[in-house]
Amino acid sequence: MVAATRVFAARMTGLPVFGPDGEPIGRVRDVVAGLSIGRRPPRVLGVVVELPTRRRIFVPMLRVTRIEPNAVTLATGSVNLRQFHQRPNELLVLGQLLDARVSIDPEGTPAVLVDVAMEQTRTRDWQLIKLAVRERTGRLGRRGQTRVLDWDQVTGLEFAEVTGRPQGVHQLLAMFDTMRAVDVASTLHDLPSKRRYEIAEALDDERLADVVEELPEDDQKDLLHRLDDERAADVLEAMNPDDAADLLAELSEVDKERLLGLMAPEESAPVKRLLEYSSDTAGGLMTTEPIVVGPDATIAEALALVRNPDLPVALASLVFVCRPPSATPTGRYLGCVHIQRLLREPPSTLVAGALDADLTSLSPQTPLTEVTRYFAAYNLVCGPVLDDEEHLIGAVTVDDVLDHLLPEGWRESGLPETEPDHQTNREAR
């Protein structure tokens, strides 16, 4: 396949990046361009690549040998693992240019930038040469004509205008539709604050809640303070209760009580219960929304609950069997059924016949160190938390345990690299 000499930047997002021998390195998340002088096309400096560990690094364009419709190939498998940080003289093409409001010369027709084409010059440099813009008609529900123009045929892309003027988010949201919440969170973390706030305002409550759960703590608090109180309360309601409790615990008492008061009582009640426990105990780690069925439920009914695509994988590994009520705190806890057992039993069988009543449970006061030993000893990814009266009040999952065991700030920097192919020399940009 012949490598492209003109590439539209929006089509590069998510493309896998490979070394010369086909070794996978990561995925493209953005294109970095230098600031242009006057109305000259900017030079493309490189691409932002997200490694499997979620760390984002900068790869210079001189390292890129081929850009194909389905992949990007580098000249070497050795890359600089230093975390990418945008410099003052740089622009993120996808993060900062898309959806910018511009004018088409010479008539001054208002338009929106929907994509940017980069081309390789005779000197093997890449430049942002062409702009795909959609005319703004002003007619509700009507889409204007899309035109591909030279860089100097469009005004409104000077640095001060791009970074200071409000932008739309339609193109970025379209890209986010195909990305996991954790990848969207990683993208938001690397964007300038202005763009981060614009995107947060445009996301619906459910999607924003999923993304906020994956953001570093400082970004979570920053976004929550930027939202109006009613919207912030709605987002907290859409979050998992344990994640909402963790976030609220980092706020001042005044802010915490105000937001809890704005939440619906049925949504704030489990969050308030979780806030009563220390964050390094089973009570502080647990979620209050495990899968719970009665002893007269069938295997088929339990499996139907496990199949919920929105259910975290770890939480789907155990179905808890309790006397009514089924909402936490439940009636008396009877035991649990492991998903592997559910898959082996006839669908019409009652879950009571497949019960594991001998699995040791956790108390809400169990410290993190004991919770860790519990998961290791029983080879579990999910475990029940009971109160003194044998009521199920929640479940701890292994991902929540890992969140508290990993070093502070791990979400910002990703996990340490262990693959020798990717350890390398520093390279100037």
Automatic annotation (TrEMBL):
Keywords carried by this UniProt record: CBS domain
CDD domains: CBS_pair_Mg_transporter (cd04606)
Entry-linked Pfam families: CBS (PF00571), MgtE_N (PF03448), SH3_actinomycetes (PF26205)
PROSITE patterns associated with the record: CBS (PS51371)
Extent of Basic and acidic residues compositional bias: 419-429
Domain CBS: start-end pairs: 355-413
InterPro entries, per database record: CBS_dom (IPR000644), CBS_dom_sf (IPR046342), Mg_transptr_MgtE_intracell_dom (IPR006668), MgtE_N_sf (IPR038076), MgtE_transporter (IPR006669), PRC_barrel-like_sf (IPR011033), SH3_actinomycetes (IPR058838)
Domain of life the protein comes from: Bacteria
Region (Disordered): 409-429
UniProt-recorded name of the protein: CBS domain-containing protein
